[in-house]
């Protein structure tokens, strides 16, 4: 009973923390620690919520969640007789856990299929350009720039984007897209997309996905600033935002006109970074959330 209560309290704390994080102002000053904190809150919330129900469900066995599930799967008799509340908690916990796992797998499969189809399409309608080596160019008048993540990642720009940007601005955008590929931001977004599929009615979940999408763009901007002028990147974003740009295809990572101004303001008027101790504290909190929740699945309090 104590384990179930602790897991329920942890789930509530993660939900409140996620709600507060959607309005936090410090995240743009440290996008990478903020992304790590978002990921840890999501993992801990999912495990704590399902774990609380399962901990109450396996209470008749008198052991932890994971050992109790193993005993239940083996058909072992509990120490106490089942009652309707424990049976209901077991069904609810197993259903919630199954839904989360299935939705995550479905989101991954959907993304892989979309990228496979898009690579096939790119092979037919895009071309190489000596002026931008290693980049696929689409013969389209609209402005577009995005990457196709994966083991065979590709960076794609349109003919309209090549005409829109100067050489320095194009280099800044390509550095940004290369950061997405290098840091595998597609894997960062996948759990949030899956959670939104499972809970489309949740305002916090929708806002969390939007926040993480913006944060990975800011993190890629920070990586690009190592190789180009922040003002060049900001100018390229402004041109993109006012040119009637094309959205990135589903499953790809690319420039979005919706968050351009927030990124431009950050590039032109950068706020001071969070102190190193603060960033270390955020990462330590994230690690503790991720490690403590599975531990509560094993022990019996």
Distance between the termini: 8 Å
**What order do the SSEs take from the amino end to the carboxyl end, as H and E?**
HHHHEEEEHHHHHEHH
Helix content: 55-70%
Overall pLDDT metric:
87
**Radius of gyration (Å):** 23 Å
**Structural class of the helix and strand makeup?**
mainly alpha
% residues in beta strands: 5-15%
Q: Output the number of helix runs.
A: 11
Strand tally is 5
Sheet with the most strands, sense and barrel status: 5 strands, mixed
Runs in which pLDDT lies below 50 for 5 or more consecutive residues are none
- State the strand order across the main sheet: 1-2-4-3-5
Q: Into how many domains do the coordinates divide?
A: 1
Oligomer, anyone? single chain
Molecular shape: elongated
Family: Belongs to the peptidase M48 family.
Protein name: M56 family metallopeptidase
Keywords: Hydrolase, Membrane, Metal-binding, Metalloprotease, Protease, Transmembrane, Transmembrane helix, Zinc
Pfam family, one: Peptidase_M48
Question: How would you characterize this protein structure?
Answer:
- The N and C termini lie close together (8 Å).
- This protein has helices at 2-21, 31-57, 65-73, 84-125, 159-164, 167-183, 185-198, 203-224, 230-241, 260-268, 276-298; strands at 126-128, 135-138, 145-148, 154-158, 253-254.
- The protein has one domain.
- The model has no long low-confidence stretch (mean pLDDT 87).
- A 5-stranded mixed beta sheet has the order 1-2-4-3-5, with helices on both faces.
- With 301 residues, it is mainly alpha-helical.
């Amino acid at each position: 009973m104590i384990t179930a209560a602790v897991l329920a309290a942890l789930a509530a704390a993660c939900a409140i923390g996620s709600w507060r994080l959607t309005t936090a102002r410090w995240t743009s000053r440290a996008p990478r620690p903020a992304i790590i904190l978002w990921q840890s809150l999501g993992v801990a919330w999912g495990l704590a919520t399902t774990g609380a129900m399962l901990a109450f469900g396996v209470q008749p066995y008198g052991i932890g969640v994971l050992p109790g599930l193993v005993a239940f799967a083996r058909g072992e008799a509990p120490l106490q007789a089942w009652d309707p509340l424990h049976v209901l908690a077991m069904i609810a916990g197993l259903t919630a856990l199954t839904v989360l796992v299935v939705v995550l797998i479905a989101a991954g499969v959907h993304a892989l299929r979309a990228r496979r189809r898009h690579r096939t399409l790119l092979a037919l309608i895009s071309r190489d350009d000596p002026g931008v080596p290693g980049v696929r160019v689409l013969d389209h008048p609209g402005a577009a720039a995005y990457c196709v993540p994966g083991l065979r990642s590709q960076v794609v720009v349109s003919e309209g984007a090549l005409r829109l940007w100067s050489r320095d601005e194009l280099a800044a955008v390509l550095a940004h897209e290369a950061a997405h590929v290098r840091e595998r931001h597609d894997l960062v977004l996948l759990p949030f997309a899956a959670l939104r599929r499972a809970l489309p009615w949740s305002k916090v979940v929708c806002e969390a996905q939007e926040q993480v999408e913006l944060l990975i763009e800011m993190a890629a901007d920070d990586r690009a600033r190592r190789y180009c002028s922040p003002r060049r990147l900001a100018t390229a974003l402004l041109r993109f935002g006012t040119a009637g740009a094309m959205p990135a295809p589903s499953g790809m990572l690319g420039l979005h006109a919706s968050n351009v101004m927030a990124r431009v303001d950050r590039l032109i008027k950068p706020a001071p970074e969070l102190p190193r101790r603060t960033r270390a504290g955020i990462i330590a909190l994230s690690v503790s959330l991720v490690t403590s929740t599975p531990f509560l699945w094993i022990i019996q309090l």
